[in-house]
């Protein structure tokens, strides 16, 4: 492998197939590929076509065979329950093989879908790996989503089985998962055959006869009977998982990840981007329900033979703003990866980082941030307090790994606050104008990636090539459209400034305002509505709804607003963090009827804005400003 960023990027540019074939040597293959890249397969081509492999083997069995059996694979650290539990590679391999055996006995095999709806407990990672072992396709649904969101995913993925736990633990609140699951299955058209329920002592769930099974009873019995499933060889191009992410409508997009390319790309990132070797301790403080959790709590660290931390807690309040430092010290964490919002939360609670004085975190070598724009203030604070490089990097659920980063393993390049640095090998990033032409340095445009996407990125959307083409490929022919807007500077550093669609990022969680608008519109008293993301000091953005009531509605607006807030929590889930809705007489629109959401957002954030030339009635903007000011918003507007 070439040394240094420029050399690595140039070697990829010169010959992408040789570059990735070289990286693929770090993976065990059951059968080699016919072609490193086959442009004639799939929507834009497939990586490692013809090869056979198994992701679970590469994450677990092969490390045991290579002598890493006694090394911790997963350390579960839960300030929520006071538990710390270590699973060595040998123990994890055994437990995953047993769980896979249980699933196989329930008829789960290659290509079958399995939904995993679980809190941050080690069994969630075991569930994912057990599916991978069998060649079954897992689809993890984040625990903060409501029953109807889960139902939508059940209907799209059509799972044979659902793996869940009796409850999740949020500060001050036990989240009963099982009633949410039961309600989702009630709502969905497709019905799973089997549900496996991991009973947590904090709240036991009642099981439905015939369909539900007690996880521990099943795995204990299988282990006692010596039943373990072996790894099933799958095509490199077969799906490993489907992860639903917010799209431009209320219907989420099922991002597909394949087996072969995914392993090659993630394995490459560990030494080259994160400077993490086998045996090092790596901690992604995220949730397995998000892509960061898939890639960097589970797959990449295990593919790399590293130790991964699975943390059930929050950066603050569990029990205090020193939790992160405690975990780093206790487990010897070398690299921490989290969302900027976690550091904003710590900084808010402990601005002078006094908690840090209680812990020696000399083992920490770098902090990586992603999931939302990292504001320079937060980066600076973290740099000052932690005294390690703080590296912003940019990626999406769709890509599965960083599009742009400061590749510490290859070379730590100068850090520029506000920029996730430079494109990684594999990504030919172009900033395009509306006429599809590249713009010069410093000019904003649509950020696009020239096709093909590198290994590890989505080959398509689940059962929906048409939506994949329409959402990502059609607007800029020959490119993948990231739906992020930004610019590149003279040194080739990227700056990611805004989304070009309705996606907002709330505490690093990706949400669709379009999806929220669908919920608002369903309220019987609402005639028209809009939801925008407004700036928030802690969460980056929070949603703000505007509702125009039907004529003749005479009920108290405060009561209706409360109902709307509850409705979004019920339909989308608490993770939407939807707490603010304003009843207004009218919405500002263009003469052709398009709601001016961008202008409303500028008013709410106190940014300068130009009166849109096509506005229907400018007075409405004053009404919006007034409504926002009545809630203490639109300070500069
Ligand atoms: N299951 C059930 N509910 C959940 C949940 C889960 N897995 N995760 C979050 N929620 C709930 C929260 O309890 C909260 O409910 P509330 O309205 O009753 O308080 C709501 O969803 C909003 O959650 P969140 O936006 O995370 O806010 P928070 O106040 O609980 O925590 C932070 C704020 C900043 C501490 C937290 O978001 C955080 O640690 N973020 C950084 C790490 C991260 O997860 N990044 C994402 C991908 S990299
Ligand atoms: P998700 O799919 O949840 O990972 O969200 C992806 C989106 O989050 C991107 O398209 C960006 O809009 C935003 N995002 C992620 N990382 C960054 C970053 N480092 N800087 C700016 N925006 C980011």
Uncertain stretches of 5 or more adjacent residues: none
Strand order of the largest sheet: 5-4-17-16-18-19-20
Principal-axis shape: globular
Beta-sheet strand percentage?
15-25%
CATH architecture of the largest domain: 3-Layer(aba) Sandwich
Percent helix? 25-40%
Largest sheet descriptor? 7 strands, mixed
Distance between the termini: 53 Å
List keywords for this structure.
637 residues, alpha/beta, Rossmann fold, GMP Synthetase, Chain A, domain 3, 31 strands, 24% strand, binds coenzyme A, binds adenosine monophosphate
Provide a descriptive summary of the structure in words.
- By secondary structure, this protein is of the alpha/beta class.
- It has two domains: 5-313 and 393-486, Rossmann fold; 507-629, 2-Layer Sandwich (GMP Synthetase, Chain A, domain 3).
- 32% of the residues lie in helices and 24% in strands.
- It contains 18 helices and 31 strands.
- The strands form ten sheets. The protein has a seven-stranded mixed sheet with strand order 5-4-17-16-18-19-20, with helices on both faces.
- Helix 9 packs across helix 10 (291-303) and helix 17 crosses helix 18.
- The radius of gyration is 24 Å and the shape is globular.
- The relative contact order is 0.10.
- The model has no long low-confidence stretch (mean pLDDT 96).
- Bound molecules: coenzyme A and adenosine monophosphate.
- The site of coenzyme A (COA) has 27 residues, from strand 9 and helix 12.
- Adenosine monophosphate binds at residues 245, 291, 370-374, 392-397, 420, 482, 484, 496, 499, 505, 510.
């Amino acid at each position: 492998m070439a040394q240094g960023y420029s050399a690595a990027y140039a070697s990829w540019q010169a010959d992408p197939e040789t570059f990735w074939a070289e990286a693929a040597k770090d993976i065990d293959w059951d059968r080699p590929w016919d072609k490193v890249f086959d442009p004639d397969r799939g929507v834009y081509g497939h990586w490692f076509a013809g090869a056979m492999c198994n992701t679970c083997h590469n994450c677990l069995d092969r490390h045991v065979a290579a002598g890493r059996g006694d090394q911790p694979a997963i350390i579960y650290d839960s300030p929520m329950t006071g538990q710390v539990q270590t699973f060595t590679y040998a123990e994890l391999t055994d437990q995953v093989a047993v769980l896979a055996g249980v699933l196989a006995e329930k008829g789960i095999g290659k290509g079958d879908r399995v939904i995993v709806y679980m809190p941050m407990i080690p069994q969630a990672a075991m569930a994912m790996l057990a599916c991978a072992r069998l060649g079954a396709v897992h689809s993890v649904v984040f625990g903060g989503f409501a029953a109807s969101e889960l139902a939508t995913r059940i209907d799209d993925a059509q799972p044979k089985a659902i793996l869940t736990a009796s409850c999740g633990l949020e500060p001050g609140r036990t989240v009963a998962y099982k009633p949410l699951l039961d309600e989702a299955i009630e709502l969905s058209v497709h019905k799973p055959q089997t549900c496996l329920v991991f009973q947590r002592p904090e709240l036991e769930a009642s099981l439905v006869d015939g369909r539900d099974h007690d996880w521990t009873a099943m795995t204990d019995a299988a282990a006692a009977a010596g039943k373990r499933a072996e790894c099933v060889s799958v095509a490199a191009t077969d799906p490993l998982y489907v992860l639903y992410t917010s799209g431009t409508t209320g219907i989420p997009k099922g991002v597909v990840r394949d087996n072969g390319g995914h392993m090659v790309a993630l394995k490459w990132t560990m030494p080259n981007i994160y400077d993490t070797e086998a045996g090092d301790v790596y901690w992604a403080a995220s949730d397995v329900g998000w892509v960061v959790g898939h890639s960097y709590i589970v797959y990449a660290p295990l593919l790399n033979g590293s130790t991964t931390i699975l943390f059930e807690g929050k950066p603050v309040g569990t029990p205090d703003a020193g939790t992160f430092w405690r975990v780093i010290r206790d487990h010897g964490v070398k690299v921490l990866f989290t969302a900027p919002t976690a550091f904003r939360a710590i900084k808010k609670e402990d601005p002078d980082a006094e908690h840090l004085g209680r812990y020696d975190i000399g083992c920490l070598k770098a902090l990586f941030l992603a999931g939302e724009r990292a504001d320079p203030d937060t980066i600076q604070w973290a740099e000052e307090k932690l005294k390690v490089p703080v590296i912003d990097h940019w990626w999406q659920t769709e890509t599965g790994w960083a599009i742009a980063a400061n590749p510490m393993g290859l070379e730590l390049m100068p850090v520029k606050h506000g920029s996730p640095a430079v494109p990684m090998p594999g990504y030919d990033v172009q900033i395009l104008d509306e006429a599809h032409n590249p713009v010069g340095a410093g000019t904003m445009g649509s950020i696009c990636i020239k096709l093909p996407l590198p290994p590890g990125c989505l080959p398509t959307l689940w059962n929906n090539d048409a939506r994949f083409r329409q959402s990502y490929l059609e607007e800029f022919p020959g490119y993948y459209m990231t739906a992020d807007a930004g610019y590149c500077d003279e040194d080739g550093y990227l700056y990611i400034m805004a989304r070009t669609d309705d996606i907002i990022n709330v505490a690093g969680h990706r949400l669709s305002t379009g999806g929220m608008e669908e919920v608002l519109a369903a309220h019987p008293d609402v005639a028209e509505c809009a939801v925008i993301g407004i700036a928030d000091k802690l969460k980056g953005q929070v949603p703000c709804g505007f509702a125009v009531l039907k004529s003749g509605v005479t009920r108290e607006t405060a009561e209706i607003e409360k109902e709307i807030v509850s409705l979004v929590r019920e339909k989308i889930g608490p993770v939407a963090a939807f707490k603010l809705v304003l009843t207004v007489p009218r919405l500002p629109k263009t003469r052709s009827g398009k709601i001016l959401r961008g202008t409303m957002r500028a008013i709410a954030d106190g940014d300068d804005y130009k009166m849109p030339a096509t506005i229907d009635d400018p007075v409405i903007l004053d009404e919006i400003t007034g409504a926002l000011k009545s809630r203490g918003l639109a300070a500069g507007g």
